[in-house]
Structures are given as structure tokens and as C-alpha cells.
Design goal:
The protein is of the alpha+beta class. It has two helices and seven strands, in the order βββαββαββ. The protein is 19% helix and 29% strand. The relative contact order is 0.10.
Length: 118
Amino acid sequence: MKDIFDAKILCEKCNKPMIRKIVDKPGAALRAMKCETCKSIIYHPTDLEKYKQFNSLKGKTYNVKLRVVGNSHAISIPKEIISFIQEQGKMMDDMVRLCFDDMKRITLRFGDRKRWKE
């Protein structure tokens, strides 16, 4: 299926061709069309919707139970977080990277292990 952003888009203010750009937002990179003359930006609607969904999840706090499993402890990750990651087309391995950031924060990283930075 062809994407609307593959077509030539003219700025409605300047009537000049817009160029494709990737706009970095906190936690995401959004596809966009930008007018170099008036600096008007049109975000890709799919990317914008995913970004809104990400922001709604980002602000939520989940209370999960810490369980003992053998000699370790375990928590469950809420289904809506896992579903969101899977919807983004990201590969979900059986392994995640766990980092102890500071005295009160642990970070989990999902995705391709080859791309994890040490």
C-alpha cells in the first residue's frame, strides 16, 4: 500500500514543495513534511497517534507485586505495555536488558540485543 507521505506535498501557506524530515521528540522519531520557507510542519498521522499512545502510557504508574521465584525476585509487566511494544513492530526477544540506574531506579530494555549499548 502506498503512503500519502510518498506523494509530493505542497505547503498550503507558500504553495512550495515540502521536504521529508524526521523530527525527534522525547522517546520517538516522527516522520514529517516541512516547508523550508515558512517552517510549517505536518506530522505523519500514524506516527503522531503512536506518539500520543506512548505519552499516555509513559505517564501511568503501575503497582505490581514483587514475587520470590527460586533464588530471585520477579515482577509482572502490564499487558498494555507489552502490547504497545509489540504494536510498534519491535522484535520481542525472550531476553531483556536490566540496568540498575541509581538507588531507586531499575531500567528494562526490550528489543534487539545486538543494538544494546554497554
